[in-house]
């Protein structure tokens, strides 16, 4: 199989973590007889530095023409004063929108090796954590009208949370299809006691559910969901939610499994094109120090192989190699606990690589 992969190193720890994932993808390609052609694409702060624009037209073009996109992270304090249309994060949002990546899949699974890194008590962890957040990614308040006006001599700002029925229907179908292959439980998280967009979500999701009678659907307000994720996370199988709620809850979901550093994500379109990225950010405080955890990116690459290319065996080999590295006791700083071997980003990549070979 031959695939063209656009690679966005991005900012902060982006380059370090992507380097480890590419190293592993190259070995997997060789071992299983595939050709992956990697094409570096500038986006985010790195692109602002190089050419003044957070997402040059050429970068977007290459991503559109590729079979998938692998991204490290964008953003950092250096670009905090850029105007909103040219912030590094804007590159990410434009990519999501332009590539039609409406479905963001973020798993939260407690690996037995990382139990000690979780802030939750044993009695909660004993029940297990294994759920998936299905986050709508190109609607809601991120893409509604943003306004800054002057009213009666005072500045007034607003960001509209806008959803159309068809947007909700598309993401709901993705969640129901995923739930069908799992425990068949969906919790749709919203704020229907306050927001009219949430009430439309309920109306549309109810309708979609008619075609998935085998899946059990319930609703939960987002404030309660935030509490339940740390109080009793074992109750969740698939969480379906809108863009901003998904952003917030997925950070919470990641930390209860030990560290945000190991959580991958897939952003999917209607076709096979997807963008894959760890959910941690650019972590400028540890950038360039070989301290970052490459596992989130490596597992994102594994998701890419499975979801965009249908290479299930290869994807499983990478996931197994990650487990092996953890079994052997290797940890980056973010998942340290007593009696365990501290390694840097590169060495963690090496240990995983050995297992894939
Ligand atoms: C994420 C990030 C992005 C988001 C930022 C960087 C714009 O937090 O992917 O979760 O809010 O979607
Ligand atoms: Mg986020």
From TrEMBL:
Cofactor binding: number and manner: Binds 1 Mg(2+) or Mn(2+) ion per subunit.
Binding residues for NAD(+): 76-89, 281-293
Pathway(s) served: Amino-acid biosynthesis; L-leucine biosynthesis; L-leucine from 3-methyl-2-oxobutanoate: step 3/4
Gene3D superfamilies according to UniProt: Isopropylmalate Dehydrogenase
Lineage: Bacteria, Pseudomonadati, Campylobacterota, Epsilonproteobacteria, Campylobacterales
Domain annotation Isopropylmalate dehydrogenase-like: ranges: 4-352
Protein name per the record: 3-isopropylmalate dehydrogenase
One of the record's GO cellular component terms: cytosol
NCBIfam families: leuB
Cofactor(s) listed in the protein's UniProt record: Mg(2+); Mn(2+)
Enzyme Commission number(s): 1.1.1.85
Reaction catalysed by this enzyme: (2R,3S)-3-isopropylmalate + NAD(+) = 4-methyl-2-oxopentanoate + CO2 + NADH
Alphabetic keyword roster: Amino-acid biosynthesis, Branched-chain amino acid biosynthesis, Cytoplasm, Leucine biosynthesis, Magnesium, Manganese, Metal-binding, NAD, Oxidoreductase
Compartmental location: Cytoplasm
Positions annotated to bind substrate: 96, 106, 135, 223
Residues binding Mg(2+): 223, 247, 251
Domain of life: Bacteria
UniProt similarity note: Belongs to the isocitrate and isopropylmalate dehydrogenases family. LeuB type 1 subfamily.
GO molecular function: 3-isopropylmalate dehydrogenase activity; magnesium ion binding; NAD binding
Complexes and interactors: Homodimer.
Gene Ontology biological process: L-leucine biosynthetic process
Function: Catalyzes the oxidation of 3-carboxy-2-hydroxy-4-methylpentanoate (3-isopropylmalate) to 3-carboxy-4-methyl-2-oxopentanoate. The product decarboxylates to 4-methyl-2 oxopentanoate.
Naturally occurring in which organism (per UniProt): Helicobacter japonicus
Site feature location: Important for catalysis: 142, 191
